[in-house]
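Bug #77: duplicate submission created two jobs. Keeping one. Sequence:
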Amino acid sequence: MRIAILSSIAWRTPPEKYGPWEQVASNLTEGLVDKGHKVSLFATGNSLTKAELNWVCKLPYEEDKENDPKVLECLHISHLMEQAQRFDIIHNHFDFLPLSYSGLIKTPMITTIHGFSSPKILPVYKKYNKTAAYVSISDSDRNKDLDYLATIYHGLDPEKFTFKKEKEDYLLFLGRIHPHKGTHAAIEIAKKSGFALKIAGLIQDEAYFNSEIKPFIDNKNVQYLGNVGPEVRDKLLGGAKALLHPIFFQEPFGLSVLEAMFCGTPVIAFKRGSMPELIVPGKTGFLPNTISEAVLAVKALARLDPSICRAHAVKYFSLDTMVSAYIKAYHTVIGQNNKS
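Kept job's structure:
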């Protein structure tokens, strides 16, 4: 099968630090190559892959501020669409804009919807609903006005995460520093639980960081370690007593939740969005609704077995499971296209 993977160009594929869409596109690309498929990855020029790399944007636009993101996006998408006939299927990981090309090419396209950034983008998805193939990344993130081919959870390579049974005396917040992600709530949970908190992630809201987070950083009880890469992330996740994930929005998925469980680390997440689909309460973590309930969950962490966290992640969220599910979806879409 000749497969084109269209990744985002905000960050490198795979990302050096932050970049969930790019990480998923990378995982899938490499997994497909390992299964013997002929894959072309359309991403930034500095991307790393075993597949054929196609690019028009040398550096991610989040790093190269000299360029206009919209211009680069148009060049990036059209670069693939103008050679669509080379492929049996196109897999779009780049949101709604590529859908506008779908009626102009003969090659079938499957679109993974990595969440809805705004209700304002829904008209595009609705316009192509009858002709497109949409994949949701969790059941909770499905929109009632759209039809879906399948829900396919993200998958990670277990070999890239170090299992650690013995934990250290700190809690971890790993993710975007943004009110939606609840960094401020993680600080409060850790303080009331009597544990130190380590924070790592991209500062996405500078004003929020300066007013709600920075005043509490004392490098003893609360540390901010910056936007860390995979190696540091692996050590932080493995050593933590738990990952705190007190989200204040309906999160479509949470890669850091999987990463923690692969390291044998339980997750305490507010019961919103996809969290009930990822976490088994009392087995791989807890799903509190409030800060006070989260504090009680921290006190109950000793009841959880790190090996069960790891086993659950490997069984349900492995790279192989995700790749196999997408291959099945590709065959379905190609078959439907041949009949039309």
